[in-house]
TrEMBL record, chains A, B:
<dbReference type="InterPro" id="IPR003099">
    <property type="entry name" value="Prephen_DH"/>
</dbReference>
<dbReference type="GO" id="GO:0004665">
    <property type="term" value="F:prephenate dehydrogenase (NADP+) activity"/>
</dbReference>
<dbReference type="InterPro" id="IPR036291">
    <property type="entry name" value="NAD(P)-bd_dom_sf"/>
</dbReference>
<dbReference type="Pfam" id="PF20463">
    <property type="entry name" value="PDH_C"/>
</dbReference>
<dbReference type="InterPro" id="IPR008927">
    <property type="entry name" value="6-PGluconate_DH-like_C_sf"/>
</dbReference>
<dbReference type="GO" id="GO:0006571">
    <property type="term" value="P:tyrosine biosynthetic process"/>
</dbReference>
<dbReference type="GO" id="GO:0008977">
    <property type="term" value="F:prephenate dehydrogenase (NAD+) activity"/>
</dbReference>
<keyword id="KW-0057">Aromatic amino acid biosynthesis</keyword>
<dbReference type="Pfam" id="PF02153">
    <property type="entry name" value="PDH_N"/>
</dbReference>
<protein>
    <recommendedName>
        <fullName>prephenate dehydrogenase</fullName>
        <ecNumber>1.3.1.12</ecNumber>
    </recommendedName>
</protein>
<dbReference type="GO" id="GO:0070403">
    <property type="term" value="F:NAD+ binding"/>
</dbReference>
<dbReference type="InterPro" id="IPR046825">
    <property type="entry name" value="PDH_C"/>
</dbReference>
<keyword id="KW-0560">Oxidoreductase</keyword>
<comment type="similarity">
    <text>Belongs to the prephenate/arogenate dehydrogenase family.</text>
</comment>
<keyword id="KW-0520">NAD</keyword>
<keyword id="KW-0614">Plasmid</keyword>
<keyword id="KW-0028">Amino-acid biosynthesis</keyword>
Length: 296, 296
């Protein structure tokens, strides 16, 4: 009864976690696919996906899920991409589009690229969206609404395939930006990877305190710490893989961060009030930029 | 028409910023004072407070505000406490209660304590509440609802004066906890001061990037960075003073944090996935604690 025809026939989602299950829900809700199926190496996750009714079929057999799929979405942790690529390669038929939702993008070209047969289109993507929750039960169809999705197609990518993936993200509510994988990884290292690393660190530091202090840290967490614990509750495997696969860019911004922190530490030690005040004033400008860009 | 009599006659709030103006509003709204007046060294802030109608009178003359006040609340940046203490001392009459809302507590006893005449009760306090906004126009009466307020009365403090300050915070909706000033400063160093220092640092690091990258950092800030910018938009003078006045405790937790960050940095450099995963899993427990304590 809608005049918008589905973008895809069958869509296979590989890995039915928070992002995979959210996309599955959105594809169904916005009628962007005739059928959505999923594969997950966890039989439990498959059963959950079926129980939730978010896919037509769920299987632990990759080949079954790929059969007849026009679009394949990799939504497993980035560290599994080399293996998943190797296993899906032989089952991909010409014309199929393969995309992903990983938080690092050079690694996709490196790990999945070599397994993509001629005539199959690899269009890597990264929806900048998520929550601190994991698993198929945590997903929801509106997760991508108003959020950015960054696509990093290689220079020789098929323009029609790029346009189709772009259209899919737009129809689930996202704003789409195209950039080079290398540039993506540098930008996200500062906007996402470093913040997560720091949040994981400080929460770890707190959890090493003696137990009595720890319970007070929890009690009085509203002073700023609480925001870090939310970030540091994100999926451990996903984040392990992000850091291992964006090593250079993360180490580079981490070095800058450490230098800056050391300078502030020195200012505190020597009582350099003006230095602190100047720094704390400067950072307000970035916040204003975010509010102006309606990203707050 | 209420059967709860006001706790105080006249209350003087010194410094009518976010916290001072919120408390002024709450004291009026919950009828905890017969009259609320304020003093602020900024004539502009005084005019704003009058325009907003949150105080009966606003003055730049400290002595005027103290005249006849049963309770005096210091709500200026902590770095001004020594000077403010010196100036209010001669005008305090026996029986007056002096409290504050500063984020560090040993410094209050050190800087204000010596100026308090015999028979005047100094009961330092810290409402663990706030937003990233500053100034009298940013306050609101419900700011303290459901939040903790920590009181750090010295051992010899008058129990009735402590009870009255405690009662005031309870009636504006807070939960109250008593602890030693020294312990307060150590706990808050990790739950609030270190998170702010780190947020200020990372936002500063981002603002030093070349301009093209900076606009993308703003654009894609939803990946974690955004939460840091909110924290790093807090009042620069207030935070300068907190770091200068809780130097030892901040430097101590900062040292622990830096060691932990260096260990994670090393794990990333050498590809030690298991180390990263173990750390990222451990931090989830603290988040669960916060959710269980209903502080999330």
């Amino acid at each position: 009864m809608t005049d918008i025809s589905p973008l895809f026939g069958r869509v296979a989602i590989i890995g039915i976690g928070l992002i995979g299950s959210s996309l599955a829900r959105a594809l169904v809700e916005y009628r962007l696919a005739q059928e959505v199926v999923c594969a997950d190496r966890s039989a439990e996750a498959c059963a959950k996906a079926m129980e939730l009714g978010i896919v037509a079929t769920a299987t632990t057999d990759l080949a079954d899920a790929l059969e007849g799929s026009e679009l394949v979405v990799l939504a497993t942790p980035v560290g599994s991409f080399a293996e998943v690529g190797e296993r899906i390669g032989p089952h991909l038929r010409p014309g199929t589009i393969v995309t992903d939702v990983g938080s690092v993008k050079q690694a996709v070209l490196r790990d999945v690229g070599p397994h993509i047969p001629a005539g199959v289109h690899l269009i890597p993507g990264h929806p900048v969206a998520g929550t601190e929750h994991s698993g198929p039960e945590s997903g929801f169809a509106t997760l991508f609404e108003g959020r950015w999705c960054i696509l990093t197609p290689p220079p020789a990518a098929n323009p029609e395939a790029v346009a189709k993936v772009e259209e899919m993200w737009r129809r689930v509510g996202s704003k789409v930006e195209l950039m080079e994988a290398n540039h993506h990884d540098r930008v996200l290292a500062i906007t996402s990877h470093l913040p997560h690393l720091i949040a994981y660190t400080i929460v770890g530091t707190a959890s090493d305190l003696e137990e009595s202090t720890q319970s007070e840290v929890i009690k009085f967490s509203a002073g700023g710490f609480r925001d870090f614990t939310r970030i540091a509750a994100s999926d451990p495997i996903m984040w392990r893989d992000i850091f291992l696969n964006n090593r250079e860019a993360v180490l580079e911004v981490l070095q800058r961060f450490t230098e800056d922190l050391t300078a502030l530490q020195r200012a505190i030690r020597w009582g350099e009030g003006q230095h602190l005040q100047d720094h704390f004033t400067k950072t307000r400008a970035i916040r204003r930029g975010i509010i102006d860009a309606r990203q707050a």
